[in-house]
Amino acid sequence: MRLPKFDYRRPESIQEACAILLEQPSAKVMAGGTDLLVNMKHRVETPSTIVSLKGLPDLDFVRKANGEVRLGALTPLKRVYNDPFVAEKLPALAIAASSVGSYHHQTMGTIGGNLCQQTRCKYFNQSKWWRSSRPICFKAGGEQCHVAKKEHVCYSTYCGDVAPALLVLGAEVILTGGHGIRQVPLEEVFSGEGKTPLKLGSGAILTEIIIPKQAAEGFSTYKKSANRGSIDFPIVGAAVWRSGATGESRIALTAVDRKPVRARQLEDFLKGKQLDEDTIKAVDGLVAKETQLMTSSIDSLSYKRKLMGLLVQGALSEAKGGK
Amino acid sequence: MKQAIALTVNGDTYEVLIAPNQTLLEVLRDKLGLTGTKKGCDLGACGACTVLLDGEAYLSCLMLAVDAVGKEIVTIEGLSQGGELHPLQKSFVELGGLQCGFCTPGIIMTAKAVLEEEPQPTEESVKKKMAGNLCRCTGYKKVVESIMSASGSMGGKQ
Question: pTM higher than 0.90, yes or no?
Answer without folding.
Answer: yes
